[in-house]
Amino acid sequence: MIKWEGVMPAVTTKFTNDDTLDLAMFEKNIKAQIDAGVHGIILGGTLGEASTLEQDEKETLIKKSLELTDGKIPVIMNVAEQSTKGAIGAAQQAEKVGANGLMLLPPMRYKSTDYETVAYFKAVANSTTLPIMLYNNPVDYKIEVTLDMMEELLECDNIQAIKESTRDITNVIRIQNKFGDRIKVFTGVDTLGLESLVIGAVGWVAGLVCAYPAETVAIYELVKAGRIDEALKIYRWFMPLLELDISPQLVQNIKLAEVATGIGTENVRAPRLPLQGAERERVLKVIGTAMKNRPELPEYKNINSVV
Questions:
Q1: What is d(CA 79, CA 91) in angstroms, rounded to the nearest whole number?
Q2: How many domains does the chain have?
Q3: Would you say residue 297 lies in a domain?
Q4: Pick from 68, 173, 202, 295: most CB atoms within 10 A?
Q5: So what family is this one in (predicted)?
């Protein structure tokens, strides 16, 4: 069982200078996420450079995350494959290694029809007992999970949540109006995080949380407590950083931010390369300005605890 709510970072994968997994820095980052109060860890997403990871590396990351979280929060593995067979294999292997849940993308590279997309999702869901969060991002992946498609997909009991990244936040309300609590809606776009939470999203699959876990969780907890003005103050400061997430170079951007906060390195895996030239200077300026004006956070960790 996963409690589908709260801030779940789509964590970056840390690499050494020799292009192997940097488990020491990975551990430092995950510990910072846990200390800040995140509600789950998502591995191997776009930010995690999933398409460049080998199967044994994915298994290593799952095992290390399970060790660090120690059962306190769920470890969720992303599944993004080109074939249904490959996705089923990846889901089953993640379950075997011990992952607590899955985030499931539509087929990669091929723009499947609605019928094919539903068949793909159902085949994967029916191949595992793990709870699943669907990832709905037609902007980047050109495939939208519509309400009609969701209705079919919810025949699978283990499809329980959706990462809503259409950029149309009213979709949060549409999904909840149609399905109630049957499917838990997370926002998946950093620059729409606060707004989506205010109108009813139960959680936030976040990117800049990788570098700024406390600020991200504080916004969530303050919104949940109805302290919108305090959350908005942090969010206004955060927005120039959050805009670094909606870029093809989001991995490089966020890894630069992790360097600034001391919980990451700039190493990426080719074909990605560190930012160069004017774009690098622009991103460093955004990060530098934010670091100079980093807000003092209110005590947020226990404000929603039931006494």
A1: 7
A2: 1
A3: no
A4: 202
A5: Belongs to the DapA family.
* pLDDT digit string, tens, across residues 241-295: 999 998 999 999 999 999 999 999 999 999 999 999 999 999 999 999 999 999 9
Query: What does each C-alpha distance from 258 to 13, 89, 93, 291 come to in angstroms?
Result: 12, 32, 30, 11
pTM recorded for the entire structure: 0.97
How high is the mean pLDDT of the chain? 96
Assess if residue 305 is contained within a domain.
Answer: no
Burial class (CB in 10 A: 0-12, 13-18, 19+), 305: exposed
**What span, in angstroms and rounded, lies between the C-alpha atoms of 85 and 117?**
14
Residue 205 is assigned to a ligand binding site? yes
Q: What is the CA radius of gyration of the chain?
A: 18
Active-site position among 120, 135, 235, 300: 135
Establish whether the linkage from the previous residue to 248 is cis, with ω within 30° of 0: no
CATH number of the domain within which 25 lies: 3.20.20.70
**135 in catalytic set:** yes
> Is 44 among the domain residues?
yes
For residue 273, the enclosing domain spans 6-292
Mean pLDDT of 138-144: 84
Catalytic annotation on 235?
A: no
From residue 194, alpha-carbon distances to 48, 190, 236, 250, 274 in Å are 23, 8, 10, 20, 30
